[in-house]
Specification:
Helix 1 runs antiparallel to helix 2. The protein is mainly beta.
Length: 591
């Protein structure tokens, strides 16, 4: 018995899980205006032909979704798009045609499609969209995925965001969990209304002044505080204590999300709302918005994601539902790619390939021998340049971590042309393999030893921090006591998510910007974790922190010209201060 099975067996006494075999198979009932799929564990209700999730019946609760919301504001796919002369258009995707794709006692898959025609130009995003829903026998949940297609010659447009959203019953779901350390009783949506909160710097952030739950008074609520890196967004959701029921979004693969493993995205937040975000400009802006120009053809499959439901039998701690959800997440991850989706656009395991190799770091200023790229992030994305995967949102991406010997294997890769990219924590720069890689069905490509040479012009004189795409090692101040989320008070890894930390910079440096002196300062205490603006009376000032250091050079001035030194300093982007025969004093101004 494997570890997952052992954990599931240990939880069986308190949790009702999936994969039982009820006496009935999956049943489909098509009505005027609704489609109902029932497998004896849950009943899923979808509007027809819109394909909006209007109801989820489970464990004696007639609907886990917010019954006070309009039917099209409960469970839905949506997107935000820009067209010619229009921007920020929010679109809850509603189908116009319903089809049964597969139906027997083991599985039902249904489709809700919306087809674009030139008559809709400027009104709807120029995409053919096919939303799918799948219910399996004995499965405590349902799957959903979608296929977006832009035909050749269709109008230009941008996608700012696309996602799935579920709005749960606010009279039942109070407890949110997005990781082992990030769980809590959440405010009610009414707590964000006038009279119960104070609006802060942006609409999403409020200070709870008179919440329904008095224990939350004085805390900040802000949905951005519950974001995660994509690599960590595999399961999150909500728990109802009465009855003890869990509602979870499980994302078994990152391949259809883009921007790389450390791209931040939203998860769950007050509503109670749970999201699965596939594309988003959050935290990055226009650089990561996919832009379609000159009538280019594009098709992409988003998902499937799994909506998992569980419950507690014996009144034990409902938080055990989180532990069970993590086990189910691992089951889904190990089952990827799924074999049940009907769409030929979703490639199954045998249709995919793999890429393996060993990454070494060659840095003769550190070690005379090549160094194993232990813990390197290695990934495949559309062809580009070194680091371009961070701004690539049209294609699929596949990432893994190298082991202690630098060896890596990227499995279950969709067929197509890719570049192989990597970065190694502790070394600056991005690696890119010097040739495109074509993955074909069943092909296992072994690239052998690959060598990454980090960019450098000489020995490292000094550095500030660790080149690992994180600011965790720098100084993160305590929040203003007025604007605290107690969840992060004793959480070193996520304390940077506290509201208003940008204002603490001005508190620490009210008159002048920070000065960091090489050799004396400690980046853990003296280097502010973010480069932020600073309010000076009535205007906003850009930061102009200074680096101060002494650089000793062994160059005889009589052998070289003063002009040569000036050019050297200009090339290094330093501001020249003074020069003596054997000592140069330099300062760096951050612009």
């Amino acid at each position: 018995m494997g570890p997952i099975q052992k954990l599931r067996k240990a939880l069986r006494g308190c949790c009702s899980c999936s994969r039982g075999m009820p006496p009935i198979g999956v049943r489909l009932d098509v009505q005027d205006g609704h489609v109902i799929i029932d497998n004896g564990i849950l009943q899923l209700t979808l509007s027809n032909p819109d394909g909006i999730v209007t109801g989820v019946r489970y464990n004696g609760v007639d609907n886990l979704l917010e019954v006070l919301n309009k039917a099209d504001n409960r469970g839905y796919w949506d997107l935000v798009w820009n067209g010619t002369g229009k921007s920020g258009i929010f679109d809850v995707i509603k189908g116009t045609d319903f089809r049964i794709l597969f139906q027997d006692e083991e599985q039902v898959e249904v489709s809700f499609t919306r087809t674009w025609t030139p008559s809709l130009e400027g009104t709807l995003v120029p995409l053919n969209i096919d939303k799918r829903f799948v219910v399996l026998r004995g499965c405590s949940g349902f799957y959903t995925y979608a296929i977006y297609e832009h035909l050749e010659g269709w109008p230009d447009f941008d996608i700012g965001e696309t996602r799935i959203a579920f709005k749960l019953r606010k009279d039942k779901f109070y407890y949110m969990a997005i990781s082992d350390d990030r769980q809590r009783i959440m405010p009610m949506p009414d707590d964000r209304m006038p009279g119960r909160c104070q609006q802060l710097a942006y609409p999403e952030a409020v200070l709870l002044t008179n919440p329904i739950n008095p224990d939350l008074k004085g805390e900040v609520d802000d949905k951005y505080q519950y974001s995660c890196e994509d690599q960590d967004i595999k399961v999150h959701g909500w728990i109802s204590f009465d009855p003890p029921v869990g509602f979870w979004q499980i994302t078994p693969s990152d391949e259809f999300r883009a921007g790389g493993p450390v791209k931040q995205n939203l998860t769950s937040h007050v509503g109670p709302t749970t999201l699965s975000v596939f594309l988003s400009a959050h935290y990055a802006g226009q650089d990561v918005v996919p832009k379609f120009r000159n009538g280019e053809y594009w098709k992409k499959v988003f998902g499937p994601v799994f909506i998992y439901l569980n419950s507690s039998w014996d009144g034990s701690d409902p938080k055990m539902l989180w532990e069970d959800a993590k086990i189910q997440m691992q089951v889904e991850v190990e089952s990827w790619p799924y074999d049940f989706p009907v769409s030929e656009d979703f490639q199954k395991c045998l249709q995919r390939g793999s890429v393996s190799g060993k990454l070494l770091v060659r840095d003769r200023y550190i070690d005379g021998d090549d160094i194993y790229a232990n813990g390197a992030y290695v990934g495949l994305a559309l062809p580009g340049e070194a680091g371009s995967w961070q701004r690539e949102f049209k294609g699929y991406q596949f990432w893994t971590r190298a082991d202690e010997n630098g060896s890596f294997t990227i499995t279950n890769v969709r067929t197509g042309d890719y570049n192989l990219y990597a970065w190694v924590p502790g070394f600056i720069g991005d690696y890119i393999y010097d040739a495109a890689i074509t993955v074909t069905s069943g092909n296992n490509i072994d690239l052998g030893d690959l060598v990454f040479e980090p960019p450098r012009d000489g020995v490292t004189l000094w550095d500030i921090g660790i080149p690992d795409r994180s600011a965790a090692e720098f100084y993160i101040p305590d929040p203003n006591p007025t604007y605290v989320n107690r969840l992060y008070i004793n959480d070193p890894a996520d304390r940077f998510r506290q509201y208003g930390l940008w204002e603490r910079y001005a508190d620490l440096y009210p008159d002048t910007d920070l000065v960091y002196t090489i050799g004396d300062s400690d980046y853990k205490k003296d280097w502010f974790f973010a480069q932020v603006t600073r309010r000076i009376r009535t205007h906003i000032s850009q930061p102009h922190g200074r680096l101060s250091f002494i650089l000793t050079v062994f160059i005889h001035l009589e052998a070289t010209s003063f002009e040569w030194h000036s050019h050297l300093l200009h090339f290094l982007n330093y501001k020249f201060v003074s020069m003596t025969q054997k000592q140069i004093l330099l300062t760096l101004q951050q612009d």
